[in-house]
Amino acid sequence: MILFLAARPVTSPPVRPAPRRARAPFRLRPLAPYRRIFTVPGTRAVTAANLLARLPMGMLSVSAVLMITGSRGSYALAGAVTATGLAATALAGPWTARLVDRHGQARIAVPATALAVLGSLALLLCVHYGAPDWTLFACYAATATTPNTGGLSRARWAYLFRDDPAARHTANSFEQAADELCFLLGPVLATLLCTTLAPEAGTAVAAALLLTGVLLFAAQRRTEPPVAPTPATDRTRSPLRLPGLPPLLATFLATGAVFGSLEVVTIAFADRHGLRSAAGALLALQAAGSCAAGLLYGLRRQPGQARHRFPVCTAAMAALMLLPLLAATAGGPAALAVALLLAGTATAPTMVTGMGLVQSLTPPGRLNEGMTLAVTALLGGIAAGSAGGGWAADHLGGVGAAYGVPAAAAALAAAVALLAARRRPACPPAPVS
C-alpha cells in the first residue's frame, strides 16, 4: 500500500502516429485499430486490471438486493438501501473525481476504494448479524466513494493518445464495449454466487475483486496521466459552467432514463408472460447488441466532428427504441428479443460519441470530474427511468405500452442533442494534454 501511495508517476513519452505503410484491405485487418492501441507499453496490463475493478460495478447492487431480501424478506427495504447508495454516489462521485484530478489517480483511487470496500463489508456483517435497518443505509452510503473506474481508464487513453484523435475514438469505443460486458456478466455472476453459495457471497466477492483490481490498476504508473496544473480561477469553477456541457449532461440524463426504464419494463414483461427467469436473457441481448456495436463503431475513424455525429446517434437510438414498443404490443417474447438486440446497437455509438464530447469540452485538469458528472447524470436518469418504467408497467393497462417510456426518453435525448447542436458555437475542442 505504501509503495502505491508514495511512488511518483512516471509519464510515458507522447505517442506518435506509426509510419504509414501500405494498407491491406480492411476485410483482411478488421481488428487493426484495436491491435494498434494495445501496442503502447503498459496498456494491456492496465486494461486487464481495470476490467477486474470494473466487473463489481455490475455486481454490487444486485448482490445487495439478494442479500437483504434473503435475510430480511423485504424488496422495499432492499430497494430503498440501493437507492440511498445511488443518491450518495451521485453526490460523492464528482468530489472524488475532483480529488483525482488534483492529486493523481493512485493517490486517491486506492484510499477511496478501501473506504468503499469497508462499507460493503460492514453491510455484509450488519445483514448477517441482524443489525437495525438504519445501519444498512449508513453502510451502503459509505460505498459512494468508489472511484469511477471506467472514467479513470478513459482518462489514461485520453492522455496516451492526446495527439491522435482516431486512436482515442477506438479506445473510447473499446471502453464502452467493456462497460457493456461488465454490466452483462456482473449480475449473472452475482446471482450465481448469492443463490448457490450464500446470500453474502456476491457482496464479499465483489468487494475483493474491486480492491484487487484497483490496487493492480494503481500500480501501473507508466500510463497514469500526470496531474495537470489548474489555474486558481478554475479550481472553484465547476465544469457545469463550461459552454456546451450542461446540454450534453441533460442528454446523458435522458439516456440514463432509457436504460433504467427499459430494464424494469422488460422484467415486468417477462413476469407477465410467465418467463421471469428469462428476463436476464432478454436484457443480455440488449447489452450484447450494444457491445457488438461499440466494437464495430471503433474499428474505423468516423467522418466529421463528434458534435455533428452526436445528434445523429441519438436520433438513431430514438428510432430503434420504437422496435421494443412495437414488438411488445404486437408480438411476443421472441419478437421482443430480436427488437431488444437491434435497439441495443444504437446505445454504444451514442455513449462513445457523447463521452468523446465530454473529453473535448472539459479542460485537462478537470477531465475525471467532467466524465464523472456524465456518469452521475446517467445514474440520475437510470433512477428516474426505473421509477417511471415501474409506474407505467402498473398503470398503463398493458406491459407492452410501458415500452413507450424508454421510447419517449430516447426521443427526448435526441431532441436535446439536436437543439444543443444548433446553438453550440463552432469552436475547436479543448486540447487533451
From TrEMBL:
What the entry lists under Pfam families is as follows: MFS_1
What Gene3D superfamilies does the record tag this protein with? Answer: MFS general substrate transporter like domains
Q: Hey, what's the signal peptide range on this chain?
A: none
Transmembrane spans: 51-69, 75-96, 108-131, 201-219, 245-269, 275-298, 310-328, 334-358, 370-393, 399-421
InterPro entries associated with the record: MFS, MFS_trans_sf
UniProt keywords, alphabetically? Membrane, Transmembrane, Transmembrane helix
- Name of the molecule in the record: MFS transporter
